[in-house]
Amino acid sequence: MRSCFVEARCRRPSFPSPLSSQRGEGEPSPSPWRIVAFSAVLLLVLSSCAVGPNYQRPELNVPGEFRGPPPAAKTNSLAELPWWDVFKDPDLKRLIGQALTNNFDLRIAISRVEQAAAIAAQNRALFFPQVNYAGEVARGKNATVASPTPIANGGVTGSTASISGSASWDIDLWGRLRRLNESARAQYLASQQAQRAVAISVISQVAQAYFRLLALDSQLAIARRSTNSFGESLRIFSQRLEQGVISKLETSAAEAALASAAATVPEIERQIVAQENLIDVLLGQNPAAVARHRSLDEENLTLMIPPGLPSDLLRRRPDILETEQFLVSANAQVGVAVANFFPQLTLTGLFGQVSPELSAFTAGGANAWGIAANLSGPLFQGGKLRGQYRQAKSAREESRLQYESTVLNAFQEVSNDLVSLQKLGEEREQQARAVEAYRVAVQVSMERYVAGRASYYEVLQEQQQLFPAENSLVQTQLNQLLSYIQLYQGLGGGFGQEPAK
User: Which domain covers residue 91, as residue numbers?
Assistant: First the structure.
């Protein structure tokens, strides 16, 4: 076995050995109690060592700042804000609160945390002696009490009664149990971060679904407004047709534009119901209408808060923290695989009474007791233990690569969100200018048509350009809000916190 298997930190205090000390003539031999005490101290010293590598966080190439727009003024990072300070809409806050309480995915994640905590408690129990009891009363002929298998004993019929308590204790000489406990604790911490990641995802989904619902409300209002506008154009064209000023071609074109605009209303209404049902599922409740009292234009999130430093992600994002705990667990399993090469020491004890008759239990001869120490270790396993060791090392390498990949993806997501926010802000500004210009064009074209200085094609053309531009502006506003939420989520923001009471 290679010496590189053992990587541990041990404290070995120096003390005189009572067994090897010089004794003068006539001096008594060391007492049994001193030998027991020395053995206990020796066991404690040995058990202070844990074989296998101690965990060290991998070195990462962390950039000094995020790629994207230049940072804003030096204030608190966006991720430092709790979610109830980010979202100002009272209806959205209420929905988020319900989701944190009733969402099924989050409740499942909480159950997984409880399972991981129970597993960690099971591993902690390995440090303590295991104490059990047993009792038995039997009577038989040509049989033993311990086994129902028949055995020839000359046809003797006998009775047996026993009651005993036993204890066993695995001495953690090489830190195997500590490595198992370290691995289980890391799995528990990983499950906590997974729960936090689910909470972040749920709140993000609720906020995004709510803003999409507000966007659909705006699009429905645009569709109805465009339907009314095309209806007004059809009324004007019909009056001029009756007067013989225009032909049937103009009224037919206006009627077709009206029908096309009206046809979008039922589709948007269908999408609104589907979006409301999606929000209800996130809230863990049956489908119902979602109350809302604000429009999309009233949702004003602060968009220029600095994101912080890339290194902050290593201590804030739950997916990064989760994968790091998986790495800690895999590293501890390497120590477990190393400890399997070494012998294991188990102490056992028994105390009880056994008698051929119940009435003899009080007799001194019925007492039974025993203590033993068992030392066992591998001699030849055909490469099994070495294979387990190599498997544990490969699993640790996989976890390390997964950790570094998660960190790199986090940098990418935050950088993309920062650039998206910047560019969507510029797009929204230009899109708003276009909508305002189209509104003026529609008004001027209608005035020119009524005055007889323009054709109906000019009016329809401006109307058909205005309403898609309004829908595009709504979509840009929505995308900006969604990017803001994605940035806050990507930074590992305060989604996992609880609101102040």
Answer: 49-105+173-184+197-342+386-490
